[in-house]
Sequence to fold (267 residues):
Amino acid sequence: MDKFFVASLIALSGLLQAGGFARADAFLEAPGSGKVIVTGGFESSSAYVDAAGDRQPVAAYRKFTLRARTEYGVSERLTLIGGLEAGAVRTPDASLQGAGAVGTRALMFKRESLVISAVTLVTAGKGLDATAYGTDGANADMRMEAGYSFKALGTDAFATLSAGTLMATGGGRERRIDATLGARPRADVLVLLQTFSRFTQRPVAVAAKGRRAAALGQEHGSAHKAQASVVWDVLANWSVQAGVFATLLARNERLQRGIFAALWRRF
Fold:
């Protein structure tokens, strides 16, 4: 069995065996309500980690992104998802990137403080978080999500885990594992600690013998990013978020770091 899916099953089983109280986000939006999150972020990179694990200097890399994501509850078991992304990259040549996504989150299991759902997203575009690294065209993102809420040191808290595969046209594929730990030290403040891991497989041209001058091979890479942020509820339906992130480990990927800010609106 694929090692990735073994690790995912182990992590999910650990979440299933935990205990606690239902307090936090249950993934799905309530019927007839939803949210919109608009995020702007800036990131840079000064090094690229090659296949041997050695750092290679990057002359110039800057990227600004703007993302909008919305979720709307159709029923107690189904939430619709939509998203748009746009970005400007300098490497040092300037280029524009963009992607869009539509999909659903379907409730698979719910018992007290535990929720498990299945997410399917169809994306199109290039270069941003919604699409496989270095690819363009259509992508299919399929994953399982589990969320568990509990009490910690007298505060409401929750943990989530998301694991799945993103497949891109042209042969690209990414396996992703995301985790979040959230806590409310006070009623209007949410602290989020998150990790985002991806394991990339993308086609590359390699030398071949015989009549063919080149053939398609596979290049593998990975990146593990940590992120910390604070969400402050400024009004009944409005919140602001600010955070930082950095790549901790990578292979055949850039080491990136950056800042972001977001505006949340519930409706």
